[in-house]
Amino acid sequence: MWTTKTFLTKTKRGNVLKIVREHYLRDDLLCGSEACNVCPQKDDDIVLEAKPASICGLFDYSHYLVLDTNVVLHQIDVLEEDALKNVIILQTVLEEVKHQNTAMYQRLLEIIGNKKRKFYSFVNEHHKDTYVERKPGEKQNDRNDRAIRKAAEWYASHLSINNVAGQFPQIVLLTDDENNRKIAQEEGIVCCSVKDYIENVNGFVGLADKLSKNVMPESYSKDALYPAHLTPSQIHTGIRNGKLHQGTFHASRDNFMEGTASVSGYEKPVLLQGHIGINRAIDGDIVAIEILPKEEWSKPSDIVLEDKADDPGDFLEDPTLLKSNVVDTADDDITPTGKVVGIIKRKWRQYCGVLLPSQFPGATRHLFTPAEKRIPRVRIETRQSNLLVSQRILVALDSWPRNSRYPLGHFVRSLGLIGDKNAENEVILLEHDVPHARFSEAVLACLPPDDWTIPEEEIKKRVDLRSICVCSVDPPGCTDIDDALHARELPAQTRDGLKKYDVGVHIADVTHFVRPNTALDKEAASRSTTVYLVDKRIDMVPDLLSSNLCSLRGGEERLAFSCVWEIDENANVLSTKFHKSVIKSRAAMTYEQAQITIDEKSRNDDIASSLRILNALAKKMKQKRLDNGALLLASPEIRFQVDSETHDPIEVQAKKIMDTNSMVEEFMLLANVSVAQHLAAEFPQCALLRRHPPPPPANFHTFLKAARQQGFEIDVSTNKSFSKSLDAAVIPGRPFFNTLLRIMATRCMQQAVYFSSGTKTQDEFYHYGLACPIYTHFTSPIRRYADVIVHRLLAACVGADVTHATLLDTKAADALCENLNYRHRQAQYAGRASVALNTHILFKNREEIEQAVVLAVKRNALQVLIPKYGLEGPLYLPSDKFVYNEEENVQICGGTVLKTFDELTVRLTLDSTNMQHRKLVYQLVTPYIPGVSYVKENEDSNEPAMDVEVVDISETTNKRKDTDSKSTKKKKSKK
């Protein structure tokens, strides 16, 4: 049978349309219960047990649970535990969850798919006895609640009539909606709140800890610490009339009491300061902002907050502590300032961290300190504090009432003991939202067999380059080799009598194995990038591809996508062609091995000849780029030596940069530019490109002031003038000064981002760092999904493969770019966190006295860099001894003046007293300042030393040879 649904809708032109839809109903849908003897169920259809044992003290009889939508949305962590079984998930609930939260929907599907959990999905919306029509004037939510009650009532009746041997499970409806429970009880349905049910479960210790805390109404004002948030309708009205603005809140990494949000109409991000200004927003939330009057505008704080372990309780700090004492409205640093007046959408996730020990024995309420400093502490309830206090744990946020200084949350699971290497790596991956689960069976099913070889028919479709002397050059230990090169002199010369060369870049043909819209493709798109930690690698595609079939290993035939040029001896590109190919690399070399081959004059074989041609051309290409305005920047980069058994770091050293690093980089850049030009011409609306916006002038303010103190006027009007100024800024006798200046210049840059060509104008394609009008990523498809898309587009251009709908969908391309940029950024952060973790392990029970350089001067600290280790962080200065001169940006203590670029000597040790935020301790050695500087015990001084901490270690350890957003002097590092 069927029923009909009628809708009236108005078109843009004002016409009213009547839409009638047929809704089919059936009477043969299975109930899924073993206790039923009427439904024609096979063994595979039966999910629910005939006599489930009751685990809840409130019900001493067998029963099935029926859940409403909010139970799934708010208590998914409880549902994922093995305690609850024999649960009925209605279609009404599934569809509501899917509509409201796709991530929660996927988690629910995983539970239903686990046969051991006994969760049965019942299609109540298509059963003739459980379907309910929406009444006139009835809200959709009320109709859905009625549908859930109807299904629960039907199950109870169905099982009581159609049971085996007169015994049958009863139905218990779990809902936290008090009104829904009241109506259900009046209708004779047994119901219970989730809290009451779970707190009476026997035999599952800690299950109650996973309960989500109830959200207190925003109107509740008793002991309120924060202003009430506006309602959704008030926010919508305010944004529409221009009084409010929408933006995403980004908390400061150095100062949790401060953040920004970019809003339309303002060139600078809007500054949000203090508890009241931030008003319970958490990093990532989409918020409604009210801009303050101009006379109340402020500027970002120059105070670096210290990490303190004590709990200040339910009161708020004075927000004036974050601001300068005097604010001049004419100051260039003054920023539009606002306050959060409402939350449009929460972007909360699960957070890693540690439990703070309670001062009261037997307490159940505790504070949780997240590993991410941008996230505030969280109040949770647990009866396992004695066990959890020594472990890294995962906590989910539930609500943030107005009368609580901290948000409320609940315990999710333990990750392992604090300090355990596996647990700490898990924290890094979870905190930076890095997908790292094992590849699913569906993904692995997309792979070819382990012994796959290139079919002869595939070779016939391609250009056979196996006879060409191709070789790869990568860091030591690299197994995911995605690029190789060749160069050979051509017999013909140019009209000007110049030598001509045949030069090729050959990239692993990952798209031959990763086909569109397969499970493998979707997983690679989700991950977007391979993530490199110090001691492990999280692959974007399974190891069979990344380290074997797609890796261009020496002596093995591989499928490739080749970009081949004719280039004259002055490094001018005469012609370009692209084609799918088959190659056989003659050698997989490290940068050092390639450099030795080039320098060893006695070697005149094909490999040496090819590398020398490539190296000579690369130097000319690089000079052309620099002359064109490309920036040669820098960042502190280090490499750990890792113990082969424990995988713990045993030493650290700065990375060595050789000519071969630059050689490979230049040809990767040339390939990327060549492909970008071709794609933009063939697919002007949907080419996947990469742009690097020029930094706004405000980004250079502190940098220019610091350079001026050293006697240099840096011209940042264009990237070309900037590059020339950096080249000229040299201090004889201080060779590291110019490198330091370039490191600081890197901090002024904006991030390079992926984008779809149809979303930007031609002028916006420009890549500021590389000084080129168009750019993309083509050269690393093993570890970047952006390159996979570029390969597909290029293959369609040259007729090597067919196109598909999603490639040409500009909306899908825009969403893809957003994910690519997010995953790329998170991978960088994860790499830096891994460096910090391994640095802490390295400095355990270790003391070093090293040279340091001042990178920045803050109101209460110096930001210093240790060149030997690439370590960087704040060196705190005691306010009773130092005076901060804001105008000159210097710190003064008696006759000692400390400013940017000053050279210091510091002592490094590790402070592990706060296991959540272990820190390197800096102690000033020279210049000697009584009462501040560290003095060895056997020296004649009784003055106390000054302890300071490092928060952030190194810019990164995992730069790639074609990384483009910051520096063009980087090298690829792979484990």
Record keyword descriptors for this entry.
Rossmann fold; OB fold (Dihydrolipoamide Acetyltransferase, E2P); 23 helices; 24% strand
Largest sheet: 6 strands, mixed
Q: Mind telling me the CATH superfamily name of the domain at 31-207?
A: 5'-nuclease
CATH-level-2 architecture of the domain at 31-207: 3-Layer(aba) Sandwich
Overall body shape: globular
Percent of residues in β-strands: 15-25%
Mean pLDDT: 87
Q: How many DSSP helices? A: 23
Radius of gyration: 32 Å
Helix content: 25-40%
Biggest β-sheet: strands ordered side by side in the sheet: 8-12-13-11-10-9
CATH topology name of the domain at 31-207, in short, is Rossmann fold
| Strand runs, count | 40
Which CATH class of the domain at 31-207 applies here? Alpha Beta
Which structural class do the helices and strands define?
Answer: alpha+beta
Low-confidence stretches: 318-326, 940-961, 965-975
What is the terminal separation in angstroms? 62 Å
Family: Belongs to the RNR ribonuclease family.
Region (Disordered): 940-975
Domain RNB: 462-800
Domain PIN: 63-182
Please specify the SSE layout and strand pairing.
Blueprint: E1 2-10, E2 16-24, E3 63-67, H1 69-74, H2 76-79, E4 87-90, H3 91-100, H4 102-113, E5 119-122, H5 140-161, E6 170-174, H6 178-186, E7 191-192, H7 194-199, H8 232-240, E8 245-248, E9 250-251, E10 258-261, E11 270-273, H9 274-278, E12 286-291, E13 337-345, E14 350-355, E15 365-370, E16 378-381, H10 385-388, E17 391-399, E18 408-417, H11 421-431, H12 441-444, H13 456-460, E19 463-464, E20 471-474, E21 483-493, E22 499-508, H14 519-527, E23 531-532, E24 537-538, H15 543-549, E25 557-568, E26 573-584, E27 587-590, H16 591-599, H17 606-627, E28 638-642, E29 649-654, H18 659-682, E30 688-691, H19 701-709, H20 719-728, H21 736-747, E31 753-756, H22 785-797, H23 810-842, E32 848-857, E33 861-866, E34 871-876, E35 883-885, E36 890-893, E37 896-898, E38 903-911, E39 919-926, E40 948-950
Parallel strand pairs: 3-4, 3-6, 4-5, 6-7, 11-13, 19-26, 20-27
Antiparallel strand pairs: 1-2, 8-12, 9-10, 10-11, 12-13, 14-15, 14-17, 15-16, 17-18, 21-22, 22-25, 23-24, 25-26, 28-29, 30-31, 32-33, 32-38, 33-34, 35-36, 36-37, 38-39, 39-40
Helix pairs in contact: 3-4, 11-23, 17-18, 18-22
